[in-house]
Amino acid sequence: MDLKTARQIVDALKQSDRILITSHVDPDGDSVGSQLALYDYVTSLGKIAAIFGQGTIPSKYLFLNGIDKIVTDSSNAVFDADTAVVLEATSIERIGKVKRMLTQGMRIVNIDHHIGNSNYGDLNLVDESASSVGELLYKILKLDGFRMHRETAEKLYTAILTDTGRFHFASTTPDALRIAAELVEAGARPRVITDKIYFSMSAEQTRVIGEMMCNAELVHQGRMCVMSLTEEMVEARGLSFADFEGAVEYSMYVKSVEVGMLFKSVGDNCTKVSIRSRSSFDVAALARRFGGGGHVNAAGATIMMPFEAAKKALVESAGEVFSAND
Predict the structure, then answer these.
(1) Could you tell me if 278 and 288 are in contact, meaning their C-beta atoms sit under 8 angstroms apart?
(2) Measured by CB atoms within 10 angstroms of the end CB, which terminus of the chain is less buried, N or C?
(3) Rounded CA gap, 180 and 15, in Å?
(4) CA 202, CA 223: separation in Å to the nearest integer?
(5) What distance in Å separates the CA atoms of residue 67 and residue 27, rounded to the nearest whole number?
């Protein structure tokens, strides 16, 4: 992490009076945990802060202290801030409707760990070697001597746990593990957090995941698993797509699979895909072909194509990568 920039961010936050905190649309564990932890920090400095986002918060994160602080519908929100901190967004467009709240003269602080960040902030702390934004925030808070309470520790632990795939992805570095240990020492409860996030599904969620897995397709000689999730499948059970954040992991359960994809049909001409890999297959590079991005082993994209057409295009494109690498 660039310590000079980290110190500049601490100074900027201390000089601010009103701070807007946001992240990418469709929140995940890293964005939710990091936003809440940053809120704890800046309010401890006596600052007025507010968190704005776009998209439903997955129910598995509702146990986090202060979760009600996140405003998920920012369409008509008003908050006069002098500084905005944008977490885990490669470009300013990734924050969706919150972008309209960024006014001229507002200082923008950009903290991210994704490949391809456009450095759109006045201060840019982008570290592609970090496991998560949660890891970067922990280092910033530690740099300033922030006294870590259990609630904040659990938010940062959640961020790191989920963005490393339960300490499974290649992003699970010694740094990430050391920080996780320090967060446990500060009071974070690994079993409670893991149970809440990964072992607290409703019966209806479990049935939909069963349907997804039963209909999964193995392609490219079994090296890729493709799963599908439609609006009809979730609405029939009274659920939402947010209830299946991270469900792409189930595509990796077959021994022969090197790449897994979960396609979500979110409209007549809009398809979202989450991609995972267990090998050197760079799914971020694949996602970038379709306007997305991410990490080598975990990426995604929103594709303005009908569901079946998007699936066909991604599967064929992945096949080209397999052929080129063989």
Answers:
(1) no
(2) C
(3) 30
(4) 31
(5) 12
